[in-house]
Amino acid sequence: MDKRESADQSLAAYISLLRHNPKFRIVWIGELVNSAGSWFNYVATLTLVERLAGGSGLLLSLIIVIRFIPMLIFFPAAGVVADRYSRVDVLMHSCLLDAVVVAGLALVRRPQDAWLLYVLAFLQYTMAAFYDPARRALTPTIVPEHQLHLATTLDSFSWSVMGAFGASLGGWAVSRLGTSACFLLDAATYLVAAYCAFRLRGQVPPPGKHLDKERSGIDANALESPKAPSPPAHPSTNPSYGSLSPSPKRRMSTHVDLRPSAAECKPHIGPDAAHVDESSTLQGHPDEVADSVKGARGCCGAILHAFRDEINALHEGWAYICSHHNRDVAVLVFIKACGSLTWGAADVLNVRFSEMPRMQTLGDASTTLGFLFSSVGVGCFFGPIFFNKITPPRLLYLLRSIAATFACFMLGYLLMMTAPSIAYVMLSTVLRSAGSSTIWVYSTLLLQLRVPNELQGRIMALEMALFTVTDCVSSFFGGFAFDVLRMDVRRLSGVMAGVAAFFLVAWSIYAWQKWREAGGPGEGAYQRVSQTELTETGKEAV
Question: Domains of the chain by range and CATH?
């Protein structure tokens, strides 16, 4: 490690980035304020639903599921918007619209207004679906390439801190000020974030313009001849000061260059490969995106093209994993889905625990719920830090640690099932969140190491579709268990512990089999199979 690389791993490097890059500092402050408001909003929303729904678990699950539906529906269109229009303007207008929508939530006070809560929540997360891709795509244009890992870690660190402190403050605010005041506070944070974006107008090159290398740190020539990204030396860029923990709001934040390589720009998957569109994703240089929608008229045509490409991406990803060469990839794409089946019902459980009088030693239900969500931030921060220290960044070790994360889920739910006080419930939440953040980081890294660069976009699109569906299923099951199966919090915690135990055994067996096949911690069990090699072996796809 040279001196420059070593310096980049110090706390001073993060401070220097914020001090000497005013554009990123403005964006980071806006994101920090926005994240704080999101926790106020989330605690207030769950509290209001619990109050208006009369304790209905299904209605509580529905508001949690609504967070993910817009992301699944609109992210192809959101990518087009982020590539065709000024990303600064997308951020600003998304925040302004969200401010109006969230302010409208303050009008929801009576049970007969509950329908309005769900409609406005859907609109809020629809705006978030457009905000997030533009926010991620903006960072490389204002941060030099050699500092991008610092910016990513700062974003993750900020979310973890806001999870730890913002959620507890949100619970206190709901308890003292009421839900309407919290919604108005969140609307104010959106206005602050919109102002931060407004300050960057005219300072950031719009999409489609070649960037100045000195300003952005990105070589324009590299955009024309992309290379497969090298996997990071370690899943966390700096275990001492941050982690790549997932965010409920930004669960698709892994950036990968999804364009095919020059040698394999026409993937052949199965006998129908000739009919597959070459451009299965709209990632990459905006000029290439514009070319890919030739014949489409305006943004509406581009958005329709994006949806078609997304369907093609899922089809190609499915065909790839169905080949016998890639059966291991077919297993890896289910890691996040297995995790979401285990953690999806956790928010429903947290709300029910916060309503129990004997758990309210730290305050009323809203305050207790805030402390439980603050435990999520703590677990997401420390989880990858701990596992990074014991996991070498090699494929088989990563797979073994992924199996171990399900032990965190199982222990967390068992502790929750027997918890005599809120302190034990908070500790169980830390354990579960440590497992969820680690499984998110490591499962993404495994696919980056295993899947050829020209197919990573399609495989990750399939992975995210599976994850979103299973997360919704698990969240819905939490409410179904309370309302229909008449379970209490302890029985449901026990059921989720059983689900975690099942996946712990299943993934442990799979990791052991792969270890035995490789004859140790070598790379032999996970050799990449390029599309060219797949074609030459007979185009075996289902």
Answer: 19-208 (1.20.1250.20), 267-282+293-542 (1.20.1250.20)
